[in-house]
Structures are given as C-alpha cells and as structure tokens.
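FYI - complex with S-adenosylmethionine, inputs then prediction.
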Amino acid sequence: MKLDEVQKAAQEQFAKQSHRYGRGHILENVDDVRAALEKICLPSKARILDVATGGGHTGLFFASLGHDVTLADIAQPMLERAAHTAAERGLKIETRQHAAEQLPYPDGMFDLVTSRVAPHHFSSPPDFIRETARVLKSGGYFLLIDGSVADDEPEAEAWLHAVEKFRDPSHHRFLTPRAWTGLCEANHLKVLSIEMFPFKQPDLDWYFETAATSPENRRKVLELVANAPESARRLFRLGDEDGKIIWWWQRLTLIAQKSS
Ligand SMILES: C[S@@+](CC[C@H](N)C(=O)[O-])C[C@H]1O[C@@H](n2cnc3c(N)ncnc32)[C@H](O)[C@@H]1O
C-alpha cells in the first residue's frame, strides 16, 4: 500500500491510539447511524463496506442486523481490535486494510458504503467519493457522518482547523455541507438528505487524551480557545461547564444514492 504523507500520519496516529476507540468511546453510541438507517431501504442481507471503521462501531451495528459487512481501515491495529470486538459479540465480519482513497473492490459491489467520523482525515475527499461511487451498485447508498462546519463561516472553520491540527496533527480538513454535496453530485451520487447535528464534546482534556496531544500542542490549543473569535464561540457554542472547556461539534449526516 503506497501512502501519501497525510495517510501515513493517520495510519501512525491511529495505530498508536487504537486502544482508545473501543468500548466506552463516545462513538460506541450509534444512535446517529440508527437514525440514518430509517431513511435507507436496504435488502435483508446487504453487502456493506464501512470505510475507516476505527473501533468498528458503525460496521458492527450493521453486522448485528444480519448484513454482510466488510470493515476497512488504514491502521491494522484498529482492524484487529474491531475483529476482536466482533468475535466477542458473536458477529461475522471481514476486515481489509486499505486507504479510503483507493478501494480494492470491483465496480458495483456494495449496497451501502459508510464512513463515520473519519473523512476529515482523508488526504483526498474527491478520490474517496469517486471510489465510493464506483464500488456502489446502481441504487446503492452512501452514508457519511463527519465533523463539518456550516457553509460561509470561513473564520470559524479556520479556527477549528487550527485547533484540530494542534490536537491531532493527522487531522486533515473538515468539509462544509456544500463541498460534500458538490463532490457527491459530480460522481452521480444524488444527495437524498443532508443535516447538521450539534454533538457535544465531553471535555477538552478527554479530547487531548484520545489523541495523545503533546503538552506543547495542548498549550497552543488553550491559547486558541482563550482567543477564539466571536464567530467560533457562537457556531461551536464554546463554553465552560464545571471548570471544563466544552464545545459542540457540527456533525454532518449525508445520505446519497447512486443513480440507476
Ligand atoms: C475516529 S476513527 C473512526 C470511527 C468509526 N468510523 C466509528 O464509527 O466508530 C477514524 C479512523 O479513520 C482511519 N483513517 C484515517 N485516514 C484514513 C484513510 N485515508 N483511509 C482509511 N482509513 C483512514 C483511522 O485509522 C481511524 O481508525
């Protein structure tokens, strides 16, 4: 697997931090995926690819419904942990190590491709979307859930980008709803639904620990928080609760369907 610098950074970061993404991680709660599924009409045994599966929470949810699921990730330790969780839960899944930007599957193979809270690490969202469209069957669905920033908020976006880069240098970029829609529509993926849900970050220290942020970078993030522009304070509802710094991510859920 030949990787670019962004992909290598993500692979290294998540291989090192894989133990943080299993049981007890906030991503274990898949209510967002369950809600999205209500808008998707899948066959009773669908073929599903979960790209950048991390602890496997999304893919394992679909496996628990009886679907035929492949969990894919760039970091092998993540896949090993996800496979272990699957075995503990008595779920049968397949794992494949590869990047999101180049999918090693034939055209038209899947009924659904999912990717949750990961595409902001991808080096090339256009390649990811092009590949997703290619491996979907006609009429197949794409479910994207990821951090985002509302359209036309460049100052707040730049602030969040700086925070995320210091916290976890493998962060690449949050895309706006308009940018994701444009990429989908350029690749024959018709956007059926796109919504932003605010999602509360438990507290900044937890968030630092999850990414093993260096002490120097923690200081830089704290400076950014102290000097956050009004646009960022408003958009992310930046605040203090019981002495803890919290904010609300803007999380996007996009459902698209490949044209028949
Ligand atoms: C926060 S975790 C994903 C969470 C998971 N999807 C869930 O629903 O719980 C992010 C994952 O993205 C993976 N990743 C980052 N960049 C990637 C890339 N370019 N290709 C494939 N996987 C990638 C990381 O290895 C990591 O496991």
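Strands lie at 47-51, 68-73, 94-97, 110-116, 136-148, 189-200, 239-241, 244-246, 248-258. The chain has ten helices and nine strands.
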